[in-house]
Amino acid sequence: MRMLRLVVLLVALVACGMIVGSPVRAADLKITEMAVTTKISRNNPIDAVRRISHRSVKALYCFTRIVNPGAQETVIRHVWYKDGTMASEQELTVKGEKWRTWSKKPVDAESVGSWRVEAVDSTGKVLKAVEFKVH
């Protein structure tokens, strides 16, 4: 009987999110900053690209600053779209309450077009998106 009560208590604590290791609710993640940048310096973007020549850089980065209440490890995805078609997708681990992460996309002559990067949570919900053009 005592063991049954312990199991019931553990199940209740996990369901309430009170035991470490329980999944982060996707609705709890908040993106406080998201930018496409030409470079990351000291874990921060140096600029925010809106329009850029494909000749001026070899790669672009999508920087994302996240607030993750409870600081439990989870993942987000950066989904890169060119002219409305998915071009790439990168899974990024979030390991703390305040976390910074980024993905990288090579740039060349084939990159010319309208771009959008979406930050997507584990349920597929778009948390934030940024748009830019490569000419």
UniProtKB/TrEMBL annotation:
<dbReference type="InterPro" id="IPR022606">
    <property type="entry name" value="DUF2914"/>
</dbReference>
<dbReference type="Pfam" id="PF11141">
    <property type="entry name" value="DUF2914"/>
</dbReference>
<feature type="domain" description="DUF2914">
    <location>
        <begin position="74"/>
        <end position="134"/>
    </location>
</feature>
<protein>
    <recommendedName>
        <fullName>DUF2914 domain-containing protein</fullName>
    </recommendedName>
</protein>
<feature type="signal peptide">
    <location>
        <begin position="1"/>
        <end position="26"/>
    </location>
</feature>
<keyword id="KW-0732">Signal</keyword>
